[in-house]
Amino acid sequence: MVSKTVEVINAQGMHMRPAGILAKAAAAYKECNITMNVNDKKVNAKALMQIMSACIKCGNTVEIVCEGTDEQAALDEVSGLFESGFGE
Amino acid sequence: MEKYMGKGVYGAIAIGKISVFKRKEVSVKRTRVEDTNYEKQRVENAKALATSQLQEIYDKALKEVGEANAQIFEIHMMMLEDIDYNDSIQNIIDTQSVNAEYAVAVTSDNFAEMFGAMDDAYMRERAADIKDISNRLIRNLQSEGEDNSSSDDKVIICSDDLAPSETVLLDKDKVLAFVTAYGSSNSHTAILARNMNIPAIIGVGEEFLKSIKDGDSAIVDGFTGEVIVNPDEEVSNKLLLKKQQDEEKKKLLQNLKGKENVTIDGKKINIYANIGSVENIGAVLLNDAGGIGLFRSEFLYLESQDYPTEEQQFVAYKKVLESMAGKKVIIRTLDIGADKQVDYFGLKKEENPALGYRAIRICLTRPEIFKTQLRALYRASVYGKLGIMFPMITSVSELEKILGICEEVKSELNAEGIEISDSIELGIMIETPAAAVISDLLAPMVDFFSVGTNDLTQYTLACDRQNPELEDFIDTHHEAILRLIKMAADNAHKHGAWIGICGELAADTTLTETFMRMGIDELSVSPGFVLKVRETVRGLDLSK
Known about the structure:
The complex is a heterodimer. Helix content of chain A is about 35%, strand content about 30%. Chain A is of the alpha+beta class.
């Protein structure tokens, strides 16, 4: 199991577009569980509606936890998305 | 004639007949089933069909409203694949042994309710997305096609609310406007309407829907958010005129946006915009101004109950500089007094305020106020291309004092290790006859002049511009004023400074040629006049 804590830097937070990008990227790691701990909630990074309904805002910190096949690659990719502000 | 108010989301006017949007009602019955696997397979089939439908809508949206706005349909496709959403549907089928339609409808309600209960306005709107995709699934399960409201004429589409897919699927050539009873400016319908350049008004209320019928004539004013049903002739004519003016303006915009400010014989001039608040930047960019020639900093003082702090000012200046992305921004230091009064300055009432204690005179006698503003300006300078302009200059000694204070502020900031830009331009307003007459002495001390024609006119002609009885005596084209401008222009150029005009005269297109012949380098006008002046410049031939 690997984990990393990142900050949400895109001004609009996790609205539909970044949520979609995240869910799509996470879903590619079929054999790896990717969860996010944010605002006292556990969110499955592959579940679009969970991500959106977690109301993740700019400035929130998110702990990403990956467990399974290719967990390090999954962690790098998902944390990279947050760090790049989802290209926004 | 009846009027309804909503929120206009795209500024344009439409006049035409109403068509009430008809949606096939999705009604779902709960039936018990034996073969739950068969129901689950039906959901999968309906999903596959929905995905291909959404792909088609996505392609249409891509062409009509661009990638950024089409993305919503890509996300809809992903929502259809959402784990929780699908788990919920399957669970309901399995545990209750019910039909697929019912399972989708219940899931849709639950998820929509969850989003609808959120604190965040944007997230609440997402309930509509859930309903949109779920209704599509249900229609597919019931083998119904898309909703449509085809008609032969262009119509004003009126509805309770439109789903994003419904908006895009409407034949754009047949839609004059959208009016919806519900919805907010966050809704995709609003966003799509803006991008489709269709006037749209949302949230007019349910009374509206009850009182209209197909074929009623109506006017939709996207600027004010007004919908007028069965308008009388007077209102019709008024709005028809407004519509024509708006269309003319948009045509101008379309034809001239991105074009150079150059005469037929190749002479160029900068056309900048005058603004008085951070909110006006949108208009500056929309009208394609080359920069901001006059940013009146007074709003910071007028909107405040006490002297605005360095930090408050810094934030505002930084925002303007950043928004203009490297284009020149000339900020004029505090210009209150005369017709602009601020209580907390505690200024005494004057016999003759226009000739009184105002602008730079306040700054030089109360340097702490001036220094706070200068510190904020210098600190913000690294975020763009800043010019600082001082108002109401009459003498060399004033300017010496000002430049001395600037140096003080700069060395203070240097000592504190705060970075400032090394390409800040300093300039003065030429708005007193004195400044114009001694412009040969002032020009070597600055980077630019900017002529404030309103004050220059009142001081030169000794006409109070607040006095309506003097209107006949104020000849804004008076030879004396033009000579003063010419004198300032010649002296500026002799000493390597540039000169602009930022008063009302800059937008007077009957003088554009005169100013260009004088060699004026920049005209700064209200954002709405930028393209009008550009049009005039492009029609001039100075070689003749």
